[in-house]
Amino acid sequence: MSRLDDLSTVWLSVAWFAALYIVAAVIYVVVFALATGRRAQAFKAVSPGLLPPMGLLFALLVGFLVAQVWNDAERAELAVDREASALRSVDLLTASFPGEPQMRMRVLLRRHIEEAANREWPAMAEGNATLTVVPTALNEALRLAVTLTPRTEGQKTAQREIVASLQDALDARRQRIIVSESSVNWVKWTAVILVAALTLLAIAFVQSDNRLTAAISLWLFASAVACALVLIAAQDRPFDGEFRVRPDVLQEVEPAKP
Predict the structure, then answer these.
(1) Cβ partners under 8 Å of residue 245, min gap 6
(2) In whole angstroms, what is the distance from residue 12 CA to residue 108 CA?
(3) All structural domains of the chain with their residue ranges
(4) End-to-end alpha carbon distance in the chain
(5) Which of 96, 105, 134, 168 is most buried per CB count within 10 Å?
(6) Would you say 233 and 16 are in contact if contact means Cβ atoms under 8 Å apart?
(7) What's the angle, vertex CA 145, arms to CA 142 and CA 148, rounded to 5?
């Protein structure tokens, strides 16, 4: 599915609709070519009552997959928002330590955001991001925060909050990398596509005595299946594709250069 993920929504739709229409056409041709003599009677004997449970099974599978991709997208957005909020808090709190500490902290925050946007995001889009890579700038910022020398009660409070915010940012980064590895695996894709194909086959059997009705029924269900699969494929990976989570929120809180 990785090649399909690289397509725009328009071309993704074209690919899935074309694939489903081809499958439906092949089923139509094969079933009506075989629908002669005893086979025609056997095809027609397939109960129409079989279609509702098969359609329901397909709907349930699609529902589970849609819930997964939407949940992953929401978790990704929450992780990025949380990381941005934590970094913004650090930037504001370092004003309590004017001079070299504040300047150094802001440089580290800028470096972390730039590395996240330019290096981690492409890696997450490809599913190659890993927690084994240490966020150097963020770790240095945490060490700097711990070594600050507060002179007033306000600075002591600010130091505690800075350390807590940096730890929160580190945890949020871990969460977005974990979510970036989530996708609909091949077993789930195979199951939903196979159930859709079997349902198309059952429709062709039930309508095997009427070519026009069979063609219309197959076209309608194939179109519905294509719509559902496009919906899933367009958001399969939260950090990839046209509707991916972008680093815009992080870049918005990037401290300005002096």
Answers:
(1) 73, 76, 77, 80, 176, 238, 239
(2) 40
(3) 2-252
(4) 45
(5) 105
(6) yes
(7) 150
Burial grade of 84 (CB within 10 A; 0-12, 13-18, 19 or more): buried
CA distances to 73, 103, 210 from 221, in Å: 28, 61, 17
Read off the pLDDT of residues 53-106 as tens digits, 9 standing for 90 and up: 999 999 999 999 999 999 999 999 999 999 999 999 999 999 999 999 999 999
pLDDT digits (tens, 9 = 90+) for 94-151: 999 999 999 999 999 999 999 999 999 999 988 888 888 889 999 999 999 999 988 8
Query: Read out DSSP for 73-142?
Result: HHHHHHHHHHHHHHHHHHHHHGGGSTTHHHHHHHHHHHHHHHHIIIIIHHHHHTT---TTS--HHHHHHH
SS3 11: helix
**Comparing C-alpha atoms, which of 114, 113, 102, 125 is closest to residue 169?**
113
Mean per-residue pLDDT of the chain? 91
Beta carbons within 8 Å of 244's beta carbon, 6+ residues apart: 125, 237, 238
What sign has the CA pseudo-torsion 128, 122, 250, 135?
Answer: positive
Tokens of 202: 């059952």
CA atoms within 13 A on the CB side of 35: 20
Q: Please state the length of the chain.
A: 258
The predicted model scores a pTM of 0.84
Q: Are 220 and 73 in contact (CB under 8 A)?
A: no
